[in-house]
Prior knowledge:
Blueprint: H1 11-32, H2 38-57, H3 73-92, H4 96-118, H5 124-132, H6 136-159
Helix pairs in contact: 1-2, 1-4, 2-3, 3-4, 4-6
Amino acid sequence: MSSVTLLDAPLAVQFHVATVVPAAVLGAWLLARPKGTPVHRMLGKIWMGLMFVTAVSTFFIHEIRLVGDFSPIHLISIYVIVSCFTAIRAARRHDITAHRRTVAGMYLGGIVIAGAFTFLPGRIMSTSLMALANGAGSIVLVALLAFGFIGAGMLAIREMGFRRKRAV
Length: 168
């Protein structure tokens, strides 16, 4: 646990945040917008690159050491790296269902779930957030953050295609 803010964090953490924040925003936009357009394909390639670089960058972050220099969060990084190749292969084969589920799973696991863990008390992002706001401001920031994570998670789950079939 650390009382270090993002500005004082190691370069690997700063680089990771610099890649994951645009990946989170761009990913949400891609999940919400029409699929298959030239813009979707172009921005999807950028997003995939951001996700890959973000996942690789986690192997240079060793804040929590449970197994050597690594923690269970690094398993999500491995999942994201493998999923990058799986999603690209599915798109090239025109297996849109597999592509959509893989990308939505990457977003849910790599952005929403992993991101939520970064805001646990004592972590760098939590400390940085609390340094930005005091009192009621921090409550509003936490509420907005929670709303964002919940909304992004719901969007990813919707895109995974696990919907209840309607009776005819």
